[in-house]
Amino acid sequence: MRLFSESMKGLERLCVAVCGGLLVSTLAACGGEDKKATDGPDFARQGDFPSTYTPQESTPVLIRGATVLTGTGEKLLNSDVLLEDGKIAEVGKDLKVPKKGLVVEGAGKWVTPGIIDVHSHLGNYPVPSIESSQDGNEMTAPNTAQVWTEHSVWTQDPQFPLALAGGVTTLQILPGSANLFGGRAVTLKNVPGRSVQDMKFPGAPYGLKMACGENPKRVYGGKGTLPSTRMGNVAGYRKAWTDAAAYKEKWENFHKNGGDEPERDLQLETLAGVLNGDILVHNHCYRGEEMAIMMDIARDYDFQISTFHHAVEAYKVADLLAENNVCAAMWADWWGFKHEAFDMTEANIAIVDQAKACAMIHSDSAVGIQHLNEETAKAMVAGQRAGFHIEPRHAVAWMTSNPAKALGIEDVTGTLEEGKMADVVVWSANPFSVYSKADKVFIDGVLMYDRTDPARQPHTDFELGILDAEGERLPEGGQQ
Amino acid sequence: MGISINVKTKLKASLFGLVCLVGTASAETILIKDAQIVTLSEQGTLDSGDLLVRDGQIAQIAEDLGDIPADLVIDGRGKVITPGLIAPSSELGLTEIGAAASTNDGAIEEQSIGAGFDPVVAFNPHSTLIPFNRAGGLTRAVVLPYSSEKVFAGQGFAIKLTGDFDSVTKPNLVQRAYFGEYGAELAGGSRAMAYAQIANALAQAQEYAENRDQVRRGEWRELDYSVADLESLQPLLRGEQPLMINADRASDILHLLALANQYQLKLILVGAAEGWMVAEQLSKARVPVVVDVMGNTPDAFEKLGARMDNAALLHDAGVTVAISGPGYAGSHNSYLSRQAAGNAVAYGLPFEEGVRAITANVAQTFGMDAGVLAPGNTAELVLWSGDPLEVTSFAELVMIDGKPQSLVNRSTRLRDRYLSPKAGTEHGYKK
């Protein structure tokens, strides 16, 4: 079944998550009301492998006279964007040229917030895809909530710079979807790093990858263990949440009342982190029926699902998503590689969006991640053809502010609002075009990619001397 | 998007109205006015022109045909006409759901037959993939078997996307085989063995052809392949059928060129991620290449040289480039070859060549009588809402065999059922 295995490889890789606490301060759960990170036990363990990412110092950057899509629903013509101290300092007209720094002439160009991909496997399914480096899926038990995918990330995956050239500044790496609970997901800045900590998005909450449907039941049914059916899947979720609730209570009692310290369980710890709102559920789930069941489970156990991923049937339950404040991450048009991906409509994202649920594009593909602007454009047009009035100024949120929301980082990135991280893309033209390219990509105000300047195009260690001992993987502009 | 229909009485209809014409009294003459027309014939591209279809044939293409009467007049302003898209590599009609084995007929397991496998009987013209891809502008496709066991997968065939029972246009179109890493895996672990197996099969097919009667009477040494396989390789050796074989690494490609030269094979190369490195050799050998433009990641060691401008570099060297849908999207989205072509153009392929790579070049590569717009040809074309390679454009009119085709498909049906999803039972009654 070659086609299937290719689809699986490229597009799904059996890929799960939650709305977590940002910087242990207030966070708006993707779909949720603000939750206070508790001052109870530390289940999220944000400090165990802390981010060591610190943006280089940057000089001010003025992008001048461009068409600006702010990510907040506005399209500003002939406008300027000023980046200072790694932050969006100002967006407006005729801004003063900073005394020193970089001026980017924006005539004919468009500016958007950096693209955020909520679903990626760069680094945990790196290329070349040889067996020894396929570290995305701990397919040994239906519940592996104790694994953290950041421990699998190979930072030298040459796919990272390709995604950067596609305008991606932030991405969530998730475990695969073989398991009911795949483990923790991690949010990265798309910057070169010697360690994964060098790439970790400071303060971003962890995700918990969960999976509905065909994958867990196929993987474990084939091994003769639960689950082998969708009802088996649900029994598995409920058992785990029941255990996690008891674990959380035990630790909270200890925290409050002292006594004997309970035994630490890494698996239950992650789940307890979801229950106290610090870790965000990212749930691989194709079917409408299953999304409805998952939302009931979340209500029963009092947690919030951040986002349904690969939500091919989100449009069928878009009203329920809106009601429950759950996001959906979708493809523009992929379908048919398995039965739960059969009821695809190209208007999926638009219908979810029009139902006032939080809708977004996602890639799950090292190729797709390079073209998320094109994918968003297709989804926008499908919405227009369905009769909805959707313009780029609105649709841009599907690849910027909504995924930021899904990841619990919307307070610090995802739009061009003043004070947010200067994660910005300067496009050669309207990004809702196949011909448009990310010309310049800034992360925290630093020029991390420049299409016209080979000196500002990163290469991973893997690429050095790999095809030509003295050259780059690709000669003269091959990486464009 | 005003379309006026003159059927004795003048009616105004939207493009959706046009769909109503499908399958009913088809308009005998259709005139598209003032569209950009990318003919890919000697007429080149008309920035603004008229195209008249009469009795299913393209009757005229000119800058201005004036007010000649037609049953259906379409205002083509801002729109573009191209030949129908042709997928150079697909499993259309052989697969419905990738992971549902019972819906897949493209491959066989644990059988003695390899090159002789011919899946044409399994072709399902009622597959849901056909109306969906047709709505995306795809009018024809090459349908291929695949193999997870043998370096020769069998016979590919050509179809039109009418969905009719007679939509196979040419069986035994091409032989599908594998080299490179995948071929190596199938051949026991080394591409050297894959090469040896291919060469050996060809040599024995030749031996068989020269000693057919003795072999059949059992008076010849035992050959490694069934008679069916050896027979199926004869059209290759006679130069009547191309060998469609994949290779990505530059050195692999050169070995295939040498093999093709030795046996005088017509080669169609698939993949060719590092084709740009040996573009001159490919050009000289006149070997056309089917490229997955968007597959620019070095996802195998044989693809370390993968790059977005591969198609442009191959074209510059004079190679005939055909562009397939993105590999990651599979047969279900074969029509996305136009997005891939758009990307090729973004990375240096001239626009007209981008269109050619998903139409005329595919036709030429596989010997189909299609892919260009010229008077006298059967109308097989697409009217696009705008630039045909642009992701924001879509097909407004698709003609195959001179007839407007339905653009309705499960994607649009599901959309229309759930445009405003809500609780209750009524969705179950929506058509």
Structure description:
The complex is a heterodimer of chains A (480) and B (431). Chain A has helices spanning 2-12, 159-165, 214-221, 230-257, 266-275, 288-301, 318-324, 348-354, 372-385, 392-395, 401-406, and strands spanning 26-28, 34-36, 61-69, 75-84, 87-92, 102-105, 110-113, 115-120, 168-173, 181-189, 207-211, 280-284, 305-309, 327-330, 359-361, 424-427, 438-443, 446-450. With 480 residues, chain A is of the alpha/beta class. Chain A has one domain (2-55, 114-413): TIM Barrel (Alpha-Beta Barrel). In chain A, helix 4 (230-257) packs parallel to helix 6. Chain A starts with a helix and ends in a 30-residue tail after the last strand. Mean pLDDT of chain A is 92; it is low at 1-36. Chain B has 431 residues and is of the alpha/beta class. Chain B has 14 helices and 18 strands. In chain B, helix 3 (180-186) crosses helix 4. Chain B is globular. Mean pLDDT of chain B is 93; it is low at 1-17. The interface between A and B is large, with 66 and 62 residues.
Overall shape of chain B: globular
Number of helices of chain A: 11
- Tell me the name of the CATH class of the largest domain in chain B: Alpha Beta
CATH domain fold name of the largest domain in chain B: TIM Barrel
Descriptive terms for the model:
heterodimer, A: 480 residues, alpha/beta, TIM Barrel, eight-stranded mixed sheet, 11 helices, disordered N terminus, B: 431 residues, Urease, subunit C, domain 1, 14 helices, 18 strands, 27% helix, globular
Protein topology:
The complex is a heterodimer of chains A (480) and B (431).
Chain A: H1 2-12, E1 26-28, E2 34-36, E3 61-69, E4 75-84, E5 87-92, E6 102-105, E7 110-113, E8 115-120, H2 159-165, E9 168-173, E10 181-189, E11 207-211, H3 214-221, H4 230-257, H5 266-275, E12 280-284, H6 288-301, E13 305-309, H7 318-324, E14 327-330, H8 348-354, E15 359-361, H9 372-385, H10 392-395, H11 401-406, E16 424-427, E17 438-443, E18 446-450
Helix pairs in contact in A: 4-5, 4-6, 8-9
Chain B: E1 3-7, E2 9-13, H1 15-21, E3 29-38, E4 45-54, E5 57-62, E6 72-75, E7 80-83, E8 85-90, H2 129-135, E9 138-143, E10 152-160, E11 168-178, H3 180-186, H4 191-210, H5 212-217, H6 227-232, H7 234-237, E12 243-247, H8 250-263, E13 267-271, H9 279-284, E14 289-291, H10 310-316, E15 321-323, H11 337-346, H12 351-357, H13 360-366, E16 381-384, E17 395-400, E18 403-404, H14 410-417
Parallel strand pairs in B: 3-6, 3-7, 8-9, 11-12, 12-13, 13-14, 14-15
Antiparallel strand pairs in B: 1-2, 1-6, 3-4, 4-5, 7-16, 9-10, 10-11, 16-17, 17-18
